[in-house]
Amino acid sequence: MVSMIVGVILIAFTVAAALPCFLGWGEEIVMFLKGCAPVLSALIGILAIFIGVADIKDKKEAEKEESASRKYEEEHKEEKEEK
């Protein structure tokens, strides 16, 4: 609940800062966004690559576990049929 209140306050401050009748920081905000956009997009791209690699590793691990589970079930199925 507190985080929602803080979020609303920060958004209200951002809107007030961009309006010309309050702080009038609109031009500076746009300049900041233009400057940080390439850096931010590079960081997001690196993060996406790391997430993709981790996802591929998880899928390979799941396939190994599933394969081991199938082998285990087949072995025990044959033992049950022999009994």
Could you characterize the architecture of this molecule?
The chain has 83 residues and is mainly α. The chain contains two helices and no strands. The protein has helices at residues 2-18, 26-82. The longest helix has 57 residues, at 26-82. The N and C termini lie far apart (61 Å). The model has no long low-confidence stretch (mean pLDDT 89).
List keywords for this structure.
single chain, 83 residues, mainly alpha
Low-confidence blocks of residues? none
Gap from first CA to last CA: 61 Å
Query: What proportion of the residues form beta strands (DSSP E)?
Result: under 5%
Approximate helicity band: over 70%
Rg measurement, Å: 27 Å
Average pLDDT metric? 89
Tally of helical runs: 2
Instruction: Give a count of the beta strands, DSSP E runs of length 2 or more.
Output: 0
Oligomeric state of this protein: single chain
Shape: elongated
SSE pattern: HH
Overall SS class: mainly alpha
What about the largest sheet? none
Summarize the structure.
The chain has 83 residues and is mainly α.
Secondary structure: elements and pairs:
Layout: H1 2-18, H2 26-82
